[in-house]
Amino acid sequence: MLVLLPPSETKAPGGEGPPLDLGALTAPELTPVRTGLAEALVALAGDVPASRAALELSPKQDDEIARNATLFTAGTLPALERYTGVLYDALAVRSLTRAQRARADRRLAVGSALFGLVAGGDRIPAYRLSAGSALPGLPTLRALWKPALGPVLAGVDELVVDLRSGSYAVLAPVPGAVTVTVLSERPDGTRAVVSHFNKAHKGRLARLLATTTAEPGDVVRLRTLLRRAGLHVEHDGGTALTLVVPAH
Q1: 3-state helix, strand, coil in the chain (%, to 5)
Q2: How far apart are CA 86 and CA 26, in angstroms?
Q3: What average pLDDT does the structure give for the chain?
Q4: For 95-125, b where at least 16 C-beta lie within 10 A, e where not — what string?
Q5: What is the pLDDT of residues 86-129, one digit of tens each?
Q6: Could you tell me which residues come within 8 angstroms of residue 133 by beta carbon, excluding any fewer than 6 positions away?
């Protein structure tokens, strides 16, 4: 099972790992695109106003530009520790046992605007680049990633659970992947799409999928696994699941 997570705008600072080695990341066939983007991002960091415009940053976020300038020299962290925010707080990888963490590193991967795909244990520096960013002189990120990343994801020969947000999913859709929509249900039975807590629920779901010893091979077995874990999951056929949670 491969669980695809969205990245986060916020990143943990620092890192004691060796500098970025693009060729050592998962799916080395993506190295050419990664290299082009990383080099463009470093070059762009030399022009602060242009960086602000391309990355949609305010002057108060100039430290993000400084991070991009040191992409190839900064210390690194495992991807699951680099990304922060609501989803990753709920995932809480630092609280996993050694065996659970090894499973998480193997099963969890992050869809990244800069790297395309990074496994949970891949070591990366802090950076700033979003799915909707447009770097001067380069095609759109979707135009760059779809022909390179699409075949990589399509070639995964196990169940793929795609928890990426829409802007990252379109960079390289995965045919046949299981998707999960989170709905909140009010006491009167009415439902609404969860927005604020969506990431937290997906983080907890990712933690469950990362730590279970089960190996669901299809959407039906995955549905059964989630229900046994006490989750209210609905399945109307196809590869889409709906996670229903009580309204806050």
Answers
A1: 40, 20, 40
A2: 25
A3: 95
A4: ebeeebbebbbebbbbbbbbbbbbbbbbbbb
A5: 999 999 999 999 999 999 999 999 999 999 999 999 999 999 99
A6: 54, 55, 56, 113, 141
Predicted TM-score (pTM) of the model is 0.95
Give the total number of structural domains in the chain. 1
226 pLDDT more than 90? yes
Q: Are 212 and 200 in contact (CB under 8 A)?
A: no
Cα–Cα dist 171/188, whole Å: 38
Return d(Cα 94, Cα 66) in angstroms, integer: 27
**Cβ(79)–Cβ(117) below 8 Å:** no
Residue 8 sits in which domain range? Answer: 2-246
Using CA atoms, how far apart are residues 58 and 213, in angstroms rounded to an integer?
45
pLDDT of residue 194: 79
- Report d(CA 141, CA 79) in Å as an integer: 20
Classified as helix, coil or strand, 62 is: helix
Distance CA 61, CA 97 (A): 35
What pLDDT score was predicted for residue 189? 87
Report the distance separating Cα 189 and Cα 166, nearest Å: 27
Strands 160-162 and 2-5: parallel
